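Recall that a protein's primary structure is simply its ordered list of amino acids. Everything else, from secondary elements to tertiary packing, is in principle encoded there. The following example makes that idea concrete.
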Amino acid sequence: MQNRKVMGLAVLALIVLALIWSSNWVVMKSVLPYIGALEFVALRCALGALLLLVMLPLSGRSLKPPPWQPVLWIGLLQTVGMSGLSQLALVAGDAGKTAVLVYTMPFWVILLAALFLKEKPRLVQHVATAIAALGFLLVVQPWQWQGTLLSSFLAVASGASWAASAIVAKRHQNIDLLNLLAWQMAVGAAVLSVLAFATHEAPIIWSSHLLLALGYNAVLATALCWALWLFILRILPAGVAGLSTLIIPIMSVLWAWWLLSEKPDSAEAAGIGLMSLALALIGVPETWWAAARRFLRLKS
């Protein structure tokens, strides 16, 4: 019963994560006329880190940093790598397509989890991965890609970096989640601030839109959602957690269609359908698959 409750919380966390992150690609794209890409991501991560560090003593936790190795690696791979590279990819790429490219992450996670965590995917995960990969190709359509090569490379690199950070986080589950999240984000924000300062070109145009987008990103998309993601990683196997996030690019394409008029064509719609099918397959409890196998053996 307790295990079922925890799994239910993980599913709820994934739903909240998907709603916030999928819509945030449109928000991140919309701020680029007002602020540089690295400046925006540095500010959102710095504010997010500050919020989390304030929450540590308020929640009865120590401000003492956890071991430096996971903090450094997750800070560089997750905060700098994933957040920084994905924001840079949006400079030249569409919000919907960039989101989909970043979410090559699940495929990287499955490979890295097999290599470093010795996770052996179940048959249904192999099938779901193959279906998701086909759907992914239909959405991206590399044979007629109209974005820049650099934007595509940055988005895929962001996904790979995120996957690597998930493996590191999975191997350090004994560390307090909030403490780890706060300090890795502080490290990442410091690195991003240096990079933003070094590449600064135009003054920031402060506006109500930018301030609202910054608040949304710092509080919800950064502090809250990264906490939800690390919680999901602690409950689910890394490969399953990665594949589950495919709901986010599906929703991102739909958000971009609604808000930015980036309408998916028939191939993209078919790809979204296949990715949804893959999600449905991995969402079926193992006990149901076991019952189906027993039924088929009895019928034969």
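Residues 36-285 form one domain. The chain has 13 helices and no strands.
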